[in-house]
Structures are given as C-alpha cells and as structure tokens.
Amino acid sequence: PEGNRVTTCPRDGLHLNMCSGYALINDYYCDGTNDDCINIHGQFFLVEEVLSDQSVRIKPLRESDEPLEIDTKVGFFDGAVIEHFGMITASEFEPSTQEYIVEFAGKLPSWIEAGTECVPYCFLSSYVRISNSTFTNTSTCGIIMKSDNTTIDNCRFYNIEKVAAFALCSFFDPKIGMMEASAADGVVIRNSTFDNCGRKARGGGMGGFTAIATDVGMRSGASIKNVSIINNTFRNMPNNCINIMDAKNVVITQNRFEEIPADRHVYVDEHSENVKIYDNSVYASLT
Q1: Calpha distance 56→52 (Å, rounded)
Q2: Assuming Cys at both sites, which of 56, 92, 224, 268 could form a disulfide with 214, CB separation 3.0 to 4.6 Å?
Q3: End-to-end alpha-carbon separation of the chain, Å?
Q4: Would you tell me how many other CB atoms lie within 10 Å of the CB of residue 108?
Q5: Which residues have a Cβ under 8 Å from the Cβ of 140 and sit 6 or more positions away?
Q6: Which run of H or E residues covers position 151?
Q7: How many Å apart are CA 256 and CA 191, to the nearest integer?
Q8: How far apart are CA 187 and CA 223, in angstroms?
C-alpha cells in the first residue's frame, strides 16, 4: 500500500476449510500473519432429530450444502469424547432447512439425541504432513490441526505470540469454535525447534501458556489420542513449553529444554490419561 507500509496477511496464512484427502505441505515459509500460519479444520454438526435407530436429521453449525459422502464415518460426541462412529449408507440434503437426513449401516447408541454433537470425517483431511517449514512473527498460532494422522516434522517456530502447534477440538463451545471439528487421533510433532513461543494463551481461559498443546476447550475428557512429541528443542520460552490437556496416550521423549526452569517443561492436566515423559534433556537449567 501507499506510504511504504508493510502488508501482512490479515487472517490465516494458509487455511484449509473442509478439505478431504491428503494435505502435504513442505518447505513452506510464513512470516507475519495476523492470525494462524496454517489452520486445518472441518465442520461441527448437531443432531436435530433422531428419526430411527439408524437415521438422524443433522445440521451444520456453519452454513454448508456440501454433500455427505457414502461410506464416510461420522463421530458422535458423548459429552467430552467421541464415543461412537457411524458409517453413512445414504444422505439427503434439504435446502430449505439446511439439514441432512442421514442413514447409517448399523444401529446408533441410545444416548444419541437432539443436541448431540457430531463431526463427519469427509470434511477432514485423512492425513496431514507439514515438514521442513518455518513459521515466524505471528500474532496468533503457528499451526492449528484437527485431523487424524497429523505429523509436524523438522519445522521451526520463532516469535509465535500464542500457541506454536495446537491440536484441539473447539474453544469452550462448538457454536464459537464451529469449524474446529474433530478430536485428532494420531499426532506426531518431532525434530522441530520452538523459540520464543506461547507468550499468551489461546482462547481466554484455556489454561496455561503453550508451545504445544492438546486441548479441547474445557471439555474435561481425554478426547485427543495418541500424541508423540519427540526430539524437539525449546528455548526462550516465557511460559510452559508443552501443555497436555484432555489427551490420552501421550509420549514426550528426547526433547531438549534450554535455559528453562524444570517446572515449565511439561504441564499435564487432571483430565489426561497415560502420559509418559522420559529421556528428555536439560541444558544450563535455571532450577
């Protein structure tokens, strides 16, 4: 723009909205976004009506007329956690109401009722790999991920004001985080560097300041599963390096914490299960 002002991206640098298939991102450089560098998300639905023990009427929280594909799984939340997956055998969209009538291959659990949250996996990438990339000088987050089978490998995060790499479901209420769907199963963060990240929390009362977080916004259930945080380096971290919140089956190993007090290395909340922390290294510890 005129006056030699610096132009930066006003929102996300790369935003994948309701994209299925594989997302492979390599040698990506993102500097100066006003929101997330990369945001990968799907779509929340609510059950409007149970029509039978194998069919429901559902509606997206964010307007959409994208088809729900046959042989797509739909995950249903029982409170905090996805407790049932149904496989779609038939789907019909009603434009006047923006609702879908969906039939499933098997019977649905009796606890599914009007108001139950669900997420169709046809709106999520089945595999995400982000490698050899740099994220810097960002006012929100580096990467926000929701898809199963997500790997971050050999990436660099510098001066990320909030969370550098964030696996989540939604912030507090799906009506607020209406696009932040799913609860990722299978997240690997390895061989990466986190430098001066996590000065502020994401989502207000999320709890903790983070470089890496597995969090589903106060759902208080071990929703995100099978997380590996391996061989990363943390330096100049003003708050917790790693926050584990509402997660199950987590391994944190072979990471290096440089000039960071021991009580800021890893935080694990009371809702997480089976978190294993071992063989990490401390350099010039201030403790």
Answers
A1: 7
A2: 224
A3: 49
A4: 20
A5: 33, 34, 35, 36, 161, 162, 202
A6: strand 150-153
A7: 10
A8: 13
CA 222 to chain centre: 14
What secondary structure, in 3-state letters, does 213-249 show?
EEECCCCCCCCEEEEEEECCEEECCCCCCEEECCEEE
User: Rounded to an integer, what distance in angstroms lies between the CA atom of residue 118 and that of residue 84?
Assistant: 9
Residues 142 and 159: their CA atoms lie apart, in Å, by: 10
Question: Is residue 116 predicted with pLDDT exceeding 70?
Answer: yes
Q: Which of 208, 207, 163, 159 is nearest to 189 (CA)?
A: 163
Tokens of 134: 């740099």
pLDDT at 228 over 90: yes
Mean pLDDT of 70-92: 90
Q: CA 58, 61, 65: angle at the middle one, nearest 5?
A: 70
Distance CA 91, CA 1 (A): 48
pLDDT tens-digit map of 241-250: 998 887 889 9
What DSSP assignment string belongs to 18-38?
S--SEEEEES-EEE--SS-SE
- Residue 177 tokens, joined: 């985080």
| 217 torsion bin: left (phi>0), alpha (psi -120 to 50), beta (else) | left
Sorted by sequence, the CB contacts under 8 Å of residue 273 that are 6+ apart come out as 222, 247, 248, 249
Contacts with 240 (C-beta within 8 Å, 6 or more apart), sequence order:
198, 208, 209, 210, 211, 264, 265, 266, 267
Q: Which two tokens stand for residue 41?
A: 């998300």
Q: Which two tokens stand for residue 249?
A: 């089956």
Closest CA to 226 of 244, 253, 190, 250: 250
**Rounded-to-integer distance, Cα 191 and Cα 73, Å:** 32
Closest CA to 148 of 226, 74, 218: 226
